Give the backbone structure.
Amino acid sequence: MTAKSAAAAARATVYGYPRQGQNRELKKAIEGYWKGRVDADALRATATELCRTNWRQLAEAGIHEVPTGDFSYYDHVLDTSVMVGAIPERHRAAVEANALDGYFAMARGTQDAAPLEMTKWFDTNYHYLVPELGPNTVFTADSAKQVAELGQALALGLTARPVLVGPVTYLLLAKPAPGVAADFDPLTLLDRLLPVYAEVLADLRTAGAEWVQLDEPALVQDRTPAELNAAARAYRDLGGLTERPKLLAASYFDRLGDALPVLAKAPVEGLALDFTEAAAANLDALAAVGGLPGKRLIAGVVNGRNIWVNDLEKSLTTLGTLLGLADRVDVAASCSLLHVPLDATAERDIEPQILRWLAFARQKTAEIVTLAKGLGGGTDTIAAELAANRADLASRAGSALTHDPAVRVRTAAVTDADAHRSQPYPERAAAQRTHLRLPLLPTTTIGSFPQTTELRTARADLRAGRIDAAGYEERIRAEIGEVISFQEKTGLDVLVHGEAERNDMVQYFAEQLTGCLATQHGWVQSYGTRCVRPPILAGDISRPEPMTVRWTTYAQSLTTKPVKGMLTGPVTMLAWSFVRDDQPLADTARQVALALRDEVNDLEAAGTSVIQVDEPALRETLPLRAGDRPEYLAWATEAFRLTTAGVRPDTQIHTHMCYAEFGDIVQAIDDLDADVISLEAARSHMQVARELAEHGYPREAGPGVYDIHSPRVPGADEAAALLRKGLEAIPAERLWVNPDCGLKTRAWPETRASLENLVTAARTVRTELSAS
């Protein structure tokens, strides 16, 4: 096909779409099911209607080929485990008794069976359920979900493309099951898994699929020759099947690198590449292999992870370059639109001109359709869209919101000394022990306590004007009093105020910083039914006034025990927001760090002796390629130290990280120079404690002993067993006792019981240590 005919054939498509619905209908239905208010048939009806609504929206917008299989009740990787029959033995009976309840048990656990481990999906804030595999794993095909969703889309008269997690990525994301040797490599199961994928592909072909997309984002990471050979073998075998649809191997989030020639040579009919995060690298690599003659290329030129309007002319230039490199070039977002909110037009509190800078899923869909039209018919066919786009880009570039001279002067004046504590850790640790006088194995929580219905109602009433500020503050004051009283009675050593006043650990701060925008309906799925509204860091950042001092000092006035000041760190502020793309991330991180530094110093001046600056996203934001990591870690750790380095030696700085693989960044954790770090460890059975020990981490650490992402209550014996495992790696004088993460999403009954058990476990182990 010539470049001209490839352009004329250009179609618009996407890899996935937000699942929750405009008003989070799926979240409400699932949580209603868990609580017994919604039955299974009603839940399935809600899910079916949401899928149909999404497909209709896409088709009406001009998308030529809609995705199926991207919808999930909880997580698409968990769906893949079900599809291939990789059910943990401890959940098998529950799945066989009731497939839906067993599915949720794998995700959330039960009182008798722990859930699957959960961690971040590459460098996003989406969490997936980690497959558990071993040498005895037997795979069996179950394509019912995928076939049913395809059939529903085809019944609407739509062209549909099922989207599956690819077999290589699935195995590379997996971990050895409990009881399996830690050095077991799940990729050794590839030959056992491929026939199951072949069966699913045959089922989808029989059901009417012309194309099936196999997502292989793991191949954009650094891969060994053995892993690349496995990918080559997988797609040679799948491509060699006779009873199959056409295959599209999809990658996103970074450059494909050494895996591109592997997939280009494979007997598959198409590739999908990311031309936003790694446009130049993928273009060069594609040209180096001689293009994709005879194949379909889906070009991801619209950023599927951020919310700024696309530069249409720049994207058209990229698309024009791709013509001639493939038999057919189609237009898409760079990845699934799962990672952005649904519709910017629902926002009523953002200035209309600024709103035109933003593109959520529906707006990105329109951009994709416009680009496909322009690629196929020429720029004259989209002249009005191009003119409007140029005006929007110019409006943003020239806005006073994006440039604050005072912020830029302060940021430029930062020196290396500003990012270092005045004394080394051993001297600080001695001063803090004298000042705080904490027991061995001190107990604490991560920060938040349950956000009850009453709290959420009070916040909604304030926004709606049903109560005034004084009435709202009285409710917050009472909640803080209850939280402090509970912690004292339970016997925790370092308390928190519970964060009753906070809607979200990032949004709460963004709403009080200049240069930030907040949405009312910009919900994005983080995990399961947990949705967040990431703020938008649109301009230069500063802090007009203290943000947390008032409530922290009020809580401290209610107790003689230390109360932690609680802040969200600069890297997490960036990672869990939609960040401006018109300057380097390092520059924005430094601006946020200076704003938070002011808050840290004000907390200390008000008498706060323990200050926690959470950085759960430090690992999440780690570049996928090792060569890109040193630069990132240099500015990321500097931003944390810039936030915290201005305090006295006897002020104890904590940080917290959760639900990521920490082994890759232990040196960076060390470089933060925090006095205490708390980390998720319950689901991974203290793996991070062992990683810290192997590194020789010299500071205090609290690997979590209570998995807060499950409703189950761990017994005191269970928590004590985890503590003992932690003590195998971390000396008692440096070991803290805490949950994995904040308690915001948990109910009060399970929180009370779990924390009481946690304190009992700490006392038990203290007694054992004193007797030894």
Remarks:
- The mean pLDDT is 95.
